[in-house]
Amino acid sequence: MARILVVDDDEQIRTMLRMTLEGAGYEADEACDGRAAVRKQRENPADLVITDLIMPEKEGLETIMDFRKEWPGAKIIAISGGGRSVPGDYLLHAKHLGAARVFRKPIERSELLGAVRELLAEGACLTKGRRFE
Question: Nearest Cα to 31, choosing from 67, 55, 2?
Fold first, then answer.
């Protein structure tokens, strides 16, 4: 079962995303900011990370950069509702920093689950250096 880490400072969004992912058959964990996400990834690595971009403590762009340094192959989906700038600006930066997919909030669940399935399938079944699809 694929494990997904949901990173967002908004507890309601984290819970909604976790429940959506669990309902689709994934194991999901939550982190309230980038610091907690990095710590959780070190303790129990996720197959995919969904991170908000505007958060206190350690925001999403910095989190993506840290994941790229420590886990270069990490699959990352960035989400944003905006902030002081338009969401597209943050999402464009996230894409340039290595997010595989980006979504504006509110997120269409079917689109998010489609992106999750697609990204997890890209790295499925790596065994002894061989890839099986």
Answer: 55
Domain count across the chain: 1
Other beta carbons within 10 angstroms of residue 6's beta carbon come to: 25
Ranking 51-60, 64-73, 87-96 by mean pLDDT, the lowest is 87-96
Q: Write out the residue range of the structural domain in which residue 111 sits.
A: 3-131
Residue 35 is predicted with a pLDDT of 97
User: Measured between alpha carbons, how far is 76 from 78 in angstroms, rounded to an integer?
Assistant: 6
pLDDT band at residue 64 using 50, 70 and 90 as cut-offs: very high
| CA-wise closest residue to 77 among 61, 99, 97 | 99
Q: Give the CATH number for residue 63.
A: 3.40.50.2300
Single pTM value for the model: 0.89
The string of DSSP codes covering 38-107 is HHHHHHS--SEEEEESS-SSS-HHHHHHHHHHH-TT--EEEEE--SSS-HHHHHHHHHHHT-SEEEESSP
- Report the DSSP beta bridge partners of residue 77: 50, 101
Mean pLDDT computed over every residue of the chain: 89
